[in-house]
Amino acid sequence: MNKTFQRLYTLWCAIVFAGIFLILFPFFLVLIMFPKWHHHSFYLNRFWAWTALKLVGIPTKLQGVERIDKTKQYVYCSNHFSLLDILSFGFAPNPVVYVGKESLAKIPFFGFMFSKLHVTVNRESMKNSYQALQRAIAKMGENRSLVMYPEGGIYSKDIPRMARFKDGAFRAAIEKQIPVVPVTLPDNWIILPDERAPLIRRRKMKMIFHEPIPTKGLNMKDVPALKEQVFKTIERGINQHHPIYEYK
């Protein structure tokens, strides 16, 4: 794909992603007005993700969905190398609430929607991080799962190697006594790189749901071991798609 075509393709993708969101925005506003309806935002997210990727010609491949019980709650944890990771969870098997960094709230329109329907967190403040986690657990209620990026943002300086995981996702899972589902997003960073002026590449968007890890009976002393288990699971998933990534 030459640079001129890639720039035109990136422009087309931006128009499609933004255009569909703006069409859906009034519906998001209606949901925002009624907290009991917030979980329905998931279906708008799914429509947005499915329609946008279809229109720009990016195919999707979901693996391991059969491992997920759609009637249960989970904490989904994935690697985070691209803004496309947020859109990807529109394909989650069940309704979800996101925890995202505070800067997302500054994005016009999208930021307002995200901050009202999901949870933003200031990672630099321990107090804010704790409060955000409690808000996220409350927003889950009894019918939504939680999506968290344990790296805390796009912090890796050596993609596709991951940055160190933070504790929040694992504390939430243990507090709620619900399973953690490691999720590998192996190629989003290639499709939409984390750059100042990224050029989008057409490539299959893959999403791998690994075996849920139970937390029944665990307590906060088990956070480090659970965190390490999830890290290694996602890391193996990345390594299977990128052999140059040396798994240790």
TrEMBL record:
User: SUPFAM superfamilies under this entry?
Assistant: Glycerol-3-phosphate (1)-acyltransferase
Please, one GO biological process term?
Answer: phosphatidic acid biosynthetic process
Q: Which GO terms describe its molecular function?
A: 1-acylglycerol-3-phosphate O-acyltransferase activity
Q: Which UniProt keywords apply?
A: Acyltransferase, Membrane, Transferase, Transmembrane, Transmembrane helix
In what pathway does it function?
Lipid metabolism
Q: Does the keyword Acyltransferase apply?
A: yes
Residue stretches spanning the membrane: 12-34
Specify the Phospholipid/glycerol acyltransferase domain's residue ranges.
74-188
Is the keyword Transmembrane in the record?
A: yes
Under InterPro entries, the record lists:
Plipid/glycerol_acylTrfase
The name of this protein is 1-acyl-sn-glycerol-3-phosphate acyltransferase
